[in-house]
Amino acid sequence: MLDTVLLAVGPGDGDRSDQLAEAVIEVANPADATVVLAHVFTSSEYDDVLDRLEFDPDVDEIDPDAVATRHATIHDLEAVLDEHDVDYAVRGAVGEHGPTIVDLAASVGADRVVVGGRRRSPTGKAVFGSTAQEVLLSAPCPVTFVRHDDAD
């Protein structure tokens, strides 16, 4: 039985939020699991998002959870989960995508991780690494990989 499902998203996942939501509902809804919507930012992505979302460090309490809560991809996913009566929480984290997702999975006691990715050439994987591959190999629980079908 699943109690906690971690859905990890990053900056490139806005265009596949429907696919990710569908996958997490398929996994979590029959089990009445809580979904942890986790938005992971690298340090530079985090700084860019702070600027774009107009956080004022002198006024706003800035922590990754608050930043994730205000991110459009999280809003889209929340709307779908609300529509399907799925319980969820939002977490944000700053770090390299793969290891940070693995750490989040461990810290929230995830029974399953859902992560998206794109089909890439072997050279692309070797040169740039693969977040999904790292999560698949290192997560403390089973991982569901949602492949984004590029139309190009």
From TrEMBL:
<comment type="similarity">
    <text>Belongs to the universal stress protein A family.</text>
</comment>
<feature type="domain" description="UspA">
    <location>
        <begin position="1"/>
        <end position="147"/>
    </location>
</feature>
<dbReference type="InterPro" id="IPR006015">
    <property type="entry name" value="Universal_stress_UspA"/>
</dbReference>
<protein>
    <submittedName>
        <fullName>UspA domain-containing protein</fullName>
    </submittedName>
</protein>
<dbReference type="InterPro" id="IPR014729">
    <property type="entry name" value="Rossmann-like_a/b/a_fold"/>
</dbReference>
<dbReference type="Pfam" id="PF00582">
    <property type="entry name" value="Usp"/>
</dbReference>
<dbReference type="InterPro" id="IPR006016">
    <property type="entry name" value="UspA"/>
</dbReference>
